[in-house]
Amino acid sequence: MQIYALSTKKKKKTIIFKIIPFLVGLSIVGLDQILKRIFITKLSDGNYIDCGICDMRLVYNTGTAFGLFAGNNSFFVYISLLAIILIFILIFKTPTRDILSRSAYSMILAGALSNLVDRLRVGYVIDFIDFRFWPVFNLADTSITCGIILLFIAIFNQNQKGCGVN
Fold first, then answer.
1. What's the rounded mean pLDDT across residues 23-31?
2. What is the pLDDT of residue 3?
3. Residues that are catalytic
4. Residues in a beta bridge with 130
5. d(Cα 166, Cα 155) in Å, to the nearest integer?
6. Which of 15, 93, 117, 129 is the most exposed, having the fewest neighbouring CB atoms within 10 Å of its CB?
7. DSSP 8-state symbol, 137
8. Chain centroid, CA 14 distance in Å
9. Alpha-carbon gap, residue 164 to 156, rounded angstroms
10. What's the CA gap between 90 and 81, in Å, rounded?
11. Domain for residue 56, yes or no?
12. What is the pLDDT of residues 108-161, one digit of tens each?
């Protein structure tokens, strides 16, 4: 009976480790899309909202990060699809117990998916966060950036463990 209880707890923990990163990613996509729709309705006539340290300003980006390579939306749709497929493969190849790497991949995936939704739905990425000294970006871009930082931390931690450093 006790062995069964331990086995059941382990299965529940494994399921939670598999599901949580996807729920986080799904939440990011949902929140990013909701915010974009709100700002489209509130800022569509060129207005902006001054939030102190940043403005909320609507920008339509047909390029990539920082607006580079503008006008190549179709190309970036294909690149996004390839990246999304690669990230799915990485998520499923990453051990379930490596929650940090799986979360990082899920955040990158969520950002890529949300920006892809924009590209397919309206033909460009909708950006709205403006720090005035940096190109305008969105929550999906932030998710990708945070996911990459988390991935570097996960890799660093794994390298430290591999070298016997605690």
1. 94
2. 52
3. 127, 141
4. 55
5. 14
6. 93
7. B
8. 23
9. 12
10. 14
11. yes
12. 999 999 999 999 999 999 999 999 999 999 999 999 999 999 999 999 988 777
User: What is the number of domains present in the chain?
Assistant: 1
47 backbone dihedrals φ, ψ, rounded to 5°? -75, 165
Each residue's pLDDT tens digit, 101-115: 999 999 999 999 999
The gap between the terminal CA atoms of the chain, to the nearest Å, is 37
CA angle 37–27–20, rounded 5-degree value:
170
Question: Does 3 fall in a domain?
Answer: no
Report, in angstroms and rounded to the nearest whole number, the Rg of the chain calculated over CA atoms: 19
User: Quick check: is 7 in a domain?
Assistant: no
Give the integer Cα–Cα distance in Å for 166 and 137: 37
Q: What is the pLDDT of residues 32-57, one digit of tens each?
A: 999 999 999 888 777 889 999 999 99
The domain in which residue 144 lies consists of 21-162
Can you tell me the distance from the alpha carbon of 41 to that of 64, in angstroms, rounded to the nearest whole number?
24
CA angle centred on 143, ends 142 and 144, rounded to 5°: 90
pLDDT for position 96: 80
Distance of CA 33 to the CA centre of its chain: 12
Confidence of residue 162 (pLDDT cuts 50, 70, 90): low
For 15, 114, 121, 124, the CA distances from 69, given in Å and listed in that order, are: 41, 19, 20, 12
